Amino acid sequence: MNLSVRARIEDLLVSSPVGSLLAEMRANGAKMPWYLAWLERTQWASPARLHELQDERLRRVIGYAYEHSAFYRMRLDAVGFTPERFRGVDDLQSLPVLTRGDVREHFSEIKADNANHIRHQLGTTSGTSGARLEFLRDVETMQMGNAVQWRYWRWHGIRFHHRFAQLSTVGSAESRGAPPVQYSRGSRRLTLRLRSLDSESLGQAIDRLARFQPDAIRCGSTTLLTHVASYVMRHQPQCCRPKAVFAGGERVFPDQREIVHEAFGVPLVEFYGNWEYVVFGGECERGRLHLAPEMGCVEILKDGRPQPPGETGEIVVTSLWNRAFPFIRYAIGDVGRLEGEPCPCGRGLPTWRIVGGRQKDLLATPVGYLHLSGSLLGTPRWRGKIQGLRFYQETRSDVLVQIVKGPDFRNEDVPALREDIDRCLEGRLAFTIQFCEGLADTPGGKYRYIVSKVPIEI
Ligand SMILES: [Zn+2]
């Protein structure tokens, strides 16, 4: 059979409801649709019922970790805690917190002694600092994590047969060695890895998007997505009209939402996730960021004590699924708060806000932190004048504002630019402007709007 005819037939099969479901099961595991069906029901359960579900799973996770992980057995013994005494979520605070340093130093002791009998893969993450962290994620954990993501995508009208475009960079830790353009016919997913934020890379990415006409765009760096959206606005305003655009990986600013909305014709929908598959958050149709309590437990800690809704603290998470490499009370490096009032969408899933993450999102001032209210890049008066912008901070006393000039930038714009940056910083931080040719990615291979070397202290 002619190859192109065969490809066309395969494409038709995949785009049928049954074909796309089978392709998804091949890509994400046979149990994924069953988990998804379960999650579609549990999202409407009461908070009390979801709490019970977490208690049940947690008892299993703690019992399993005690039996199979030398690291957790030693830790539980050290605080005099046996799995039989463990009742659920409320007992978590009796256990010590797991740091990224612990994961790095004690990989082989944390790993379950029977991990070789559990299907798993080696995961890595780099974070903004570029320091590599290795861990295991088992198949069950990934199937549940993928089902949680599908539930979220479905809130925004995305179905198995829809076409996905994934945007990232060639340098990110997760992409290393992968080709710049990859298409998976089975999952109808096009992955575009940009080499840099220059016109050539952006232009090529947008041509691909225009040809592919995705139903959904997903990007794990809001900064990267904002650059793509700005380029679309300037050069190909009708490039594509997806049903949804998902972005995360760092804080989302209101003017970034505006520019993405203008460029693609749909609102930006925020998500929060991590490669450890421990926790996931996604905005619902009403714009609130819901947690997936079926996937992991979230605690908000300040000085080691759990905080009530509304109070900001360090985010500590426990996986309810990973047996090969248990994550129990894992300090993921981000700061946030739970919200108390239920979401008008009617789901029982708790909602939260991410305030910021390690070395990104937050600028330190001599007396606390600064939450920037806008990104400047999306501001209409600077479109065409500013092509790239980054806040780079090494000390609490000042910040370097790195700017890549756009084609319309004139020297007379400098005083107004100084004024707008000062307003953006609320006059609370001294700054220096540095004009550069381009913005380099972070050691972790991501483009970030804020890079801060000042440690977060809550
Ligand atoms: Zn909601």
Structural class: alpha/beta
Question: Quick one: overall form?
Answer: globular
Q: How many strands, what sense, and barrel or not for the largest sheet? A: 8 strands, mixed
- Radius of gyration equals 23 Å
The set of bound ligands, ions and cofactors reads:
zinc ion
What's the tally of helices? 12
Secondary structure: helix percent: 25-40%
How many strand elements? 21
Topology:
Blueprint (H helix, E strand, L loop, with lengths): L2 H13 L1 H12 L3 H11 L4 H22 L1 H9 L21 H6 L1 H4 L9 E6 L7 E6 H17 L8 E6 L11 E4 L4 E6 L4 H14 L3 E4 L2 H14 L8 E5 L5 H11 L3 E5 L8 E3 L5 E3 L4 E7 L2 E2 L6 E7 L10 E9 L13 E6 L5 E3 L2 E3 L15 E10 L2 E8 L8 H11 L5 E6 L14 E3 L6
The structure holds zinc ion (ZN).
The site of zinc ion (ZN) has 7 residues, from loops.
Question: Could you explain how this protein is built, in words?
Answer:
This protein is an alpha/beta fold. The protein has helices at residues 3-15, 17-28, 32-42, 47-68, 70-78, 100-105, 107-110, 139-155, 199-212, 222-235, 254-264, 414-424; strands at residues 120-125, 133-138, 164-169, 181-184, 189-194, 216-219, 244-248, 268-272, 281-283, 289-291, 296-302, 305-306, 313-319, 330-338, 352-357, 363-365, 368-370, 386-395, 398-405, 430-435, 450-452. The strands form five sheets. The chain has an eight-stranded mixed beta sheet with strand order 4-5-3-6-7-8-9-10, sandwiched between helices. A five-stranded antiparallel beta sheet has the order 12-11-13-14-15. Strand 6 (216-219), helix 10 (222-235) and strand 7 form a beta-alpha-beta unit. The structure holds zinc ion. Zinc ion binds at residues 284, 286, 288, 290, 343, 345, 347.
